[in-house]
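Async update (no meeting this week)

Hi team, since we skipped the sync, here's where things stand on the single-chain job. The sequence we agreed to prioritize is pasted below, unchanged from the tracker. I ran it this morning and attached the output directly underneath so nobody has to dig for it. Comments welcome in thread, and please keep replies under the output.
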Amino acid sequence: MTQANDNMPHRPGAANAPPGGKLPVKGGDDPDVRFLAENTDLSPKQARELIREHGHDRAKLLEIARTMKAEG
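Output:
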């Protein structure tokens, strides 16, 4: 007797998919990281670091990100 899973197509790497069926998004699950990455030239990694150093105040984070852009 065959199981229902036998009818499923084989997808390499599917075993490593995040639980819950959610796809990864730019910036991960943190909405502030995603916001900064989408609204500035910062990478998600840079955005995460900025939030770690300065907190979650979006106005302050945007101001600092603009300064970083001007310096770089």
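Quick observations from my side:
The two ends are 63 Å apart (CA to CA).
The CA atoms of residues 17 and 23 lie 8 Å apart.
Reply here if anything looks off.
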